[in-house]
User: What shape does this take?
Amino acid sequence: MTMSNCLESFRIDISEKVIEDLHRRIDLVRWPVKELVDDWSQGVPLNKMKELVAYWRNKYDWRRCEKQLNSYDQFLTNIDGVDIHFLHIRSRQKDAMPLILTHGWPGSVIEFLKVIGPLTDPESYGGKAMDAFHLVIPSLPGFGFSGHPKDGWKVDRIARAWEELMKRVGYTRYVASGGDIGAAVSSTMGQHAPQELFAVHLSQPFVLPDPPYENLTQDEQAMLDSFEYMARWGGGYALQQASKPQTLGYILADSPVGQAAWIYEKFRDWSDCDGTPENVFTRDEMLDDIMLYWLNNSAASSGRFYWYNWDDGLKGIKINVPTGCSIFPKEIYRAPRTWAERYISNIIYWNEPERGGHFAAFERPEIFVEEIRGCFRLVR
Assistant: This one.
């Protein structure tokens, strides 16, 4: 792994010409014909998409998001030929626990903005000083403000890059947490078990055993049913990104409305929103995340992750460090503890919150914070 130890301070400064180009493209949008159903079963309804895009064009303020992100310390560091962007927020509690938080697709560092305060400064949010964390929040390679890899990055490579990142930041002991791709990365870090890593927390454990599947419990059958449902009704995005991410990139890189629809649909399908994404996300929050894909032309580079990692799929990942799992009710699938115990050698925390979905920190920040505190309190 080629690298230097340089950490370069980073500040977001998007040119006004880029914003003007976005507006021009939105003004020239050609809408598809209306869907032939009265729900989301054929994709984002035309009226819902028009409402979101009208807000994006006329009311959304990127500078607000840019200012918020720039209020945190941000850095770039080159690891294995790719510039990795990350936020680093230190708690005022000197003995706070270092924690690396990893997002997934179609997420970004935006997912974690609402939990930064409670995790780094718990006393100001009704918590205890003993629960404070120092936070490192990186953008995955090919996502957000990280660089676009010129070769393939599999999960193992990202995990090793994160281990190097934490060394560069200066942490000799730390914990890790993530969902989606972030769960795969955190799990693989737990599989490597570097001496600096002493626990991980997962909201989507990768614990699917190889077939055949016999004498299944109710929870095990439910997980398989979720896979079957995704394969028929919700997995088209993954197949496209895993098979032809470049072809998809031509569409999404050229059309902001297409890029927005590609992600907006997932905010609805994968969140605990009772069928309406605006029940749990503001339009600003969703567009902030979408903008990190649009501004950085990340449609193809983020989708390419699926191309390089598809063969490994959702196979179980052996984890060799203490591990906590939070199984949210509207997650894409709910991992059963019986299967988790096959792959995780030491489950120290297992909880099934009453609310929350795939974007747990983004949807239900208060619940997510309590899950993180409850898990890592056991290893402080």
Remarks:
- The mean pLDDT is 96.
- The CA atoms of residues 264 and 286 lie 7 Å apart.
- The chain has 15 helices and nine strands.
- Residues 218-234 form the longest helix (17 residues).
